Amino acid sequence: MRHRLAIILPIYTILITASLFFAFCLRFDFTLGNAEWARFAGALPFVIAAKLAIAAITREWNRSYRHVSISDGVIISGACGFMTSLLLAMHYLIPQSPMTLPRSVTLIDGLISLLAMLGFRIACRIIWARRNSTNRNQPTETALIFGSDESAIGIWKMVMSSNGQLGRYRIVGFINSSGERQNSLIGGQQVYSLEDCWESKTATPIQHILVPTSTSGRVIRDLLNRCQEADIQLHKIPTVEEIVEGRFRLAVRELDIDDLLRRPPTKLDLDKIGQSITGKTVLVTGGAGSIGSELCRQIMGFNPSKLILFDHSEFGVFKMEREFASRDFGNIELCYLTGSILDSDALEGAFARHQPEIVFHAAAYKHVPLMQDNPYAAIRNNFMGTKALVDTSHKHNVERFVLISTDKAVRPTSVMGATKLLAEKYLQAMSEISSTKFITVRFGNVLNSVGSVVPTFRKQIELGGPVTVTHKDMVRYFMTIPEAVQLVLQAGAVGSSGNVLILDMGEPVKIVDLAKDMISLSGLSYPEDIDINFTGLRPGEKMYEELFYENEQSAPKIHEKIILGAGYAPSTMQINSDLQQLEGSLNESPEELAKTLWQVVNRYVALDDVQSDSLSRSAA
Q: What does pTM read for this prediction?
């Protein structure tokens, strides 16, 4: 600091002296007589001392000169205004003092001093920026930031702190996301329209477009298609909020399939979720799986007193233990249990020791073709395992139980979907007799879950193709895992006992389009580099999935993205009778067992249709 003051104090003294001198010159038309020189000489020592004292009080020399900001300008303006007011007051209070200046000189001096100090700071920043740029290899690849809103401008400001460079990219402007042409500048950078990029009307040829991660998937898909036509690379860049929260660092990343399907952020009732989880003991089955692990991550953000992660995969539990061990969760107690939901002794021991208050049941067999050939495993795990967990939760007075279900339980055509429908029905039956709130949350496919289509396509692309799609017209609903889990937590917080809550999955996506997008994101072309083979529908698969029955299309919403279903709720006597029927067929052949399963399930599908029809008529 001493060395810094040794340089700055003489500079400020020269600036103050020069400001007062030019104020006299301007006031007296650059013709100073002896009287004016005498007044200048008499007032100068006091003006220098007073201004340096005010600068010390406002910590003028402690603020960075490399990063001048608006707040610096405000403080300097205030200091100059105060000094001007002080000199004007002296003019009226002690007019005969040699330190008193003419009013016009005082006002002119205040303005020149303000400009001089601001100019000095700006000059320091410019010199420092030029010095840094000459010491670096200049990036040659030009890039535009997509958007001209606060998010895009915030990213640009962070980039500018790195001298306008981001790795190998040099930011040369913005793109107006509304698509309209604008003849405007932001921070000296031109704002272009999208058509300017496609028609090569920018000041310099554009090689890259950087898209904030908050941009919706539909917009990114459209951009990707146009960028490929224009031979422009599209990348994503984190927002300021994501960088501040520590989720990402300031760096350009390649697009992935999640970005193409991202939807606008969901408005969550965080208070409701917090009330249902904070300070509670929460158990998550399937806690090492795709959905279960993300449930555990997000639940930890709501500060439960204890989280119990329950999964049959030893390695999966170990991975989650290692992940959470690297993070600081304060006083939250973490328990890792390896076991099966079919093991009644293991469940009883876990509930007796830990007394969970909230249960999220994500453990299930989900692979449709595989379960089609293994009805015994599907019935045991998805239906009987759920029953065992529900019964144990009822016995131990669990406060709230949330079942993760699937759209394949609506008019099921697969064994997997049929067993999940039976699990839903058991929860509805138990909700009539139990103090525990039993809630079912039903949604479609999630991206990047284990065994799902996205990792399969990715592996096929890595191996050089072809990518296999069952049918060119097959469509599915997709949602990112974090978004699905957010809505599961929301549904669990606001749902009532017996509810079947359906997540709004947005628009369905054609699987063949998903495959083509993934090929493009890999830097390859269809069909030149990677081809797509159509293999035909597999056993149990539908051409399209249904989230609800037809008459539930106008069902009420309990949240902007959560729909209240209207399924038939059986009695416990009826569902247990069906369970006994299935148990009696477990030792039969897979074909006979599947036949029994469909006898039971088709009866419920018919009852659900009747229930939804009657509710539709009553609503009308």
A: 0.70
